[in-house]
């Protein structure tokens, strides 16, 4: 019964490990230097799938120190690369929890998109940049993301090690 309880606990813990893994860099990160700044464009998945909500982070850093730069607002425009159809356009403020960053979660159809954005402090434009994003077609409901599979592997490894240590203590 105790083994069963431990296995159930690990399976309940696996989604939390999955979310923690996503928050700590199992996604993609790109950067460009613009004047005195480095602009980072990140998303929290290994592959962006059509119809899935993908969290994006836009970060402004000092080029020399790598420190976060405070900004008042960021204007973002997301459009299809070829037809220039606007999917999202709006102004965003920096995320209070993340210095020098703004976040957006959005679901896009398959295709290639241009993310154009600029950071402002007061009336001053600090940096303007464009990144290209490819959204793959596919039914994500029939596939497991790599990070989720990794979570179950780590969970299984924890169960194995816990049972092995417990067995050795009994001997």
Sheet with the most strands?
4 strands, antiparallel
| Shape call | extended
The CATH superfamily title: Macroglobulin (MG2) domain
End-to-end C-alpha gap: 20 Å
Task: Write down the secondary-structure element order.
Answer: HEEEEEEEEH
User: How do the strands line up in the largest sheet?
Assistant: 1-2-3-6
- Overall structural class, as computed from helix and strand content, comes to alpha+beta
Query: Might you state the CATH topology name?
Result: Immunoglobulin-like
- Helix proportion of residues, in percent? 25-40%
Number of helices: 2
Low-pLDDT runs: 18-24
Mean pLDDT: 80
The total beta strand count reads 8
Oligomer: single chain
Radius of gyration: 21 Å
Fraction in beta strands: 35-45%
- The domain count comes to 1
User: What is the class in the CATH system?
Assistant: Mainly Beta
Could you characterize what this model shows?
This protein is α+β, with helices and mostly antiparallel strands and 171 residues long. The protein is built from 2 helices and 8 strands; from the N terminus they run H-E-E-E-E-E-E-E-E-H. The chain has a single domain (2-170), classed as Immunoglobulin-like (Sandwich), CATH 2.60.40.1930. The strands form 2 sheets. A 4-stranded antiparallel β-sheet has the order 1-2-3-6, with no helix packed on it. A hairpin with a 2-residue loop joins strand 1 (28-34) and strand 2. Helix 1 crosses helix 2. The longest helix is centred in the C-terminal third of the chain and has 25 residues, at 146-170. The chain is extended. The two termini are 20 Å apart.
């Amino acid at each position: 019964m105790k083994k069963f309880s431990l296995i159930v606990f690990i399976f309940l813990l696996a989604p939390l490990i999955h979310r923690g893994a996503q928050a700590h860099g199992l996604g993609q990160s790109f950067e460009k230097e613009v004047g005195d700044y480095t602009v980072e464009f990140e998303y929290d998945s290994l592959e962006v799938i059509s119809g899935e909500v993908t969290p994006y982070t836009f970060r402004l850093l000092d080029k020399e120190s790598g420190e976060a730069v405070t900004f008042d607002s960021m204007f973002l425009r997301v459009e299809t690369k070829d037809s220039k159809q606007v999917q999202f356009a709006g102004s965003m403020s920096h995320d209070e929890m993340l210095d020098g960053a703004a976040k957006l979660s959005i679901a896009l159809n398959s295709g290639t998109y241009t993310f154009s954005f600029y950071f402002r402090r007061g009336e001053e434009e600090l940096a303007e940049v464009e990144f290209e994003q490819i959204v793959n077609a596919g039914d994500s409901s029939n596939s497991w993301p790599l990070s989720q599979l990794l979570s179950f592997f780590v969970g299984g490894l924890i169960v194995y090690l816990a049972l092995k240590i417990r067995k050795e203590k009994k001997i």
